[in-house]
Amino acid sequence: MKFRTTSRIPAVVGALTASALALAACGDDGGSATASEDSVASGVDLSGVSITVGSKEYPEQLILGQILVQALEGAGADVTDQTGLAGTNVARAALEQGETDVYYEYTGTAWLTILKETRPINDAEELFDAVAAAEEKNGISWFARAPFNNTYAVGATADTAESTGVTSLSEYAEFVQDNPEEATICSSAEFRTRDDGLPGLEKHYGFTQPPGTVFSAESTVVYEAADKGECAFLNLVSTDARIAENDIVVLEDDKAFFPVYNPAVSMNSDVYAEHEEQYNELFNPIAELLTQETILELNGAVELDGLPADGVALDFLEENGIL
């Protein structure tokens, strides 16, 4: 897929809301996405619809947010762009409080973090159905689940994997027990505390990470930290395009701990009910396109090549006949 090197919208303008959510508002005076005559969007009429789109702040979510923005614009909707919110809690609060109407959320995040369920569901479709049913009482509709899986993982540099012989999480658990001082891991703040992160991993695989062996490193610097030898292992997300670029070995989750994290459209139910058929006609075809291979390519264009998320999203939609 070829990507343009320029943004289709002007620079982000910060905006504080009355509820102090610190929503990062992108101006909508940069022009709307347009649909060609034979595109998917051209067959969906959302003219007269006003809708506000949110997303979280990291590259993959910015891409997904721009896919929402531009697809809706292509179908004729009047879109307010509020993508780039500071994490799950803020993005979800914005939806619940009516600051936004729609954003892409992940099934695993909804089940474990938002709904605070503890019963594991490893089947992707079953998990989606459970989330969608539970969210009905919250006034949020889920639809258009995509197949790619943005789940947690643990990795090691190629040199570490070779020197330790650790290629699976069971082997990692044994290594931690036998070599506690060498079992250093770089981890994001969320992974260190979430039930689907390190605490749950320890319980599931029967080990305890020794005190002083967990080092703070967010996704933006975790590869540099590992390369400098600050940690032997590192917390990853499976859709990060930098995994291959940095020659990282992803440890096999041989006891199937990490949940499924498929993205799906989560929308205010009142907004969804007004044009349910049109929203499904627009976003179901997009969902089918968002495979693991595709999201790695899109993420790589932003994370590795430094291209703007909005331009990457627009190229994706145009090349696949959505716009």
In words, what does this structure look like?
With 323 residues, the protein is an alpha/beta fold. It has two domains: 13-149 and 261-319, D-Maltodextrin-Binding Protein, domain 2 (3-Layer(aba) Sandwich), CATH 3.40.190; 152-250, D-Maltodextrin-Binding Protein, domain 2. It has 14 helices and twelve strands. Strands 9-8-10-7-11 form a five-stranded mixed β-sheet. Strands 5-12-6 form a three-stranded antiparallel β-sheet. Helix 1 packs across helix 14 (309-319) and helix 3 packs across helix 4. It is globular, with a radius of gyration of 20 Å. The two termini are 15 Å apart. Mean pLDDT is 90; it is low at 10-29.
Write the layout of secondary structure elements.
Layout: E1 13-14, E2 24-25, E3 50-56, H1 59-74, E4 78-85, H2 87-96, E5 102-106, H3 107-114, H4 124-135, E6 140-143, E7 152-157, H5 158-164, H6 169-178, E8 185-187, H7 189-193, H8 198-205, E9 214-216, H9 222-227, E10 233-237, H10 242-245, E11 248-250, E12 263-268, H11 269-274, H12 276-289, H13 292-303, H14 309-319
Parallel strand pairs: 3-4, 8-9, 8-10
Antiparallel strand pairs: 1-2, 5-12, 6-12, 7-10, 7-11
Helix pairs in contact: 1-14, 3-4
